[in-house]
Amino acid sequence: MESQKQFKRRFSFEFFPPKTDQGKEKLQAVRNQLAEVNPDFFSVTFGAGGSTRDRTIETVLNLHKQGISTAPHLSCVGGTRAEIGELLDVYKENGINRIVALRGDLPSGMGASGELRYANELVEFIREHSGDHFNLEVAAYPEFHPQARNAEEDLKNFARKVQAGANSAITQYFFNADSYFYFIDRLEKMGITIPVVPGIMPIVNFSSLVRFSDMCGAEIPRWIRKQLEAYGDDSDSIRKFGEDVITEMCEKLLKAGAPGLHFYTLNQAEPSISIWKNLGISDREKIAF
Ligand code: FAD
């Protein structure tokens, strides 16, 4: 973990772009609550294949102009260089200076994979098109990407993104801090020393967590799964247990030198804010670990 300790810690919250007016109002309220704790930035997801293109742009620009730096996610699958270039220009013109660059997953049955096949090609293209204007974040997988041929190949593919010009990375969520420590150790042995910020998924709903984790290859440890199962419909107990488990994991990560945390909020303020407050992050200078 030595490589990670040199970086200034940064803390961020991720949203998805709302579809309805009601969703927009809710996100505005969530934004206001989260803005109070003064995060370093917000980020907004992008539906692979461009399905949320306009909503992502609208949400990013709206959040950004309200004073907290906001980073769009941008996935290349299903897109052309011209379309991606156009999007980069819109963001640059509007003062956006950070992008989360991804391959994305095309929904099944949705056309060809596009001109850029992998995230390393997207990073390369962004550097060609926009030079060093954007700070580029890429995805990292401490438990390895579900489609990776094997762990070694996945690490090499991560290295390609760094070689192409990524500045830092955000991880897929995980519930086992050791997978993150091991991942960083492997990167250090490969000479890769960019900041790799743990992605944190608050636990609020058991069935959606299981569905989501199966899809993205995040393992829910047996002891957590069993305890959540035992709570059944008791959502207060699930929330409380989830908050304790995630707070403890975050403490462990920060103590070991993780360079910040990125919260997958699912457009809810309360679960992330409770963990944030437990950790005392707002007072970054005095943070105990
Ligand atoms: P890549 O880095 O391209 O890797 C994908 C797979 O291909 C891996 O198995 C890798 O080992 C392999 N691979 C990579 N490069 C090569 C190569 N050159 N040759 C052969 N194999 C290769 N999805 C969305 O649709 N929208 C979002 O907004 C979004 N936000 C995300 C944010 C974060 C922080 C994370 C962790 C994930 C996010 N995702 C999002 C999900 C992501 O798009 C999927 O996990 C997707 O399957 C992989 O994207 P990637 O950028 O990691 O792809």
From TrEMBL:
Cofactor: FAD
GO MF annotation terms: FAD binding; methylenetetrahydrofolate reductase (NADH) activity
Pathway: Amino-acid biosynthesis; L-methionine biosynthesis via de novo pathway; One-carbon metabolism; tetrahydrofolate interconversion
Entry-linked SUPFAM superfamilies: FAD-linked oxidoreductase
Catalytic function, reaction form: (6S)-5-methyl-5,6,7,8-tetrahydrofolate + NAD(+) = (6R)-5,10-methylene-5,6,7,8-tetrahydrofolate + NADH + H(+)
Keyword flag Flavoprotein: yes
CDD domains linked: MTHFR
GO CC terms, sorted: cytosol
GO biological process: methionine biosynthetic process; tetrahydrofolate interconversion
EC number, UniProt record: 1.5.1.54
Record keywords, A-Z: Amino-acid biosynthesis, FAD, Flavoprotein, Methionine biosynthesis, NAD, Oxidoreductase
Record has Amino-acid biosynthesis as a keyword: yes
Cited NCBIfam families: fadh2
The family this protein is said to belong to: Belongs to the methylenetetrahydrofolate reductase family.
Protein name: Methylenetetrahydrofolate reductase
Species: Marinobacter vinifirmus
Lineage: Bacteria, Pseudomonadati, Pseudomonadota, Gammaproteobacteria, Pseudomonadales
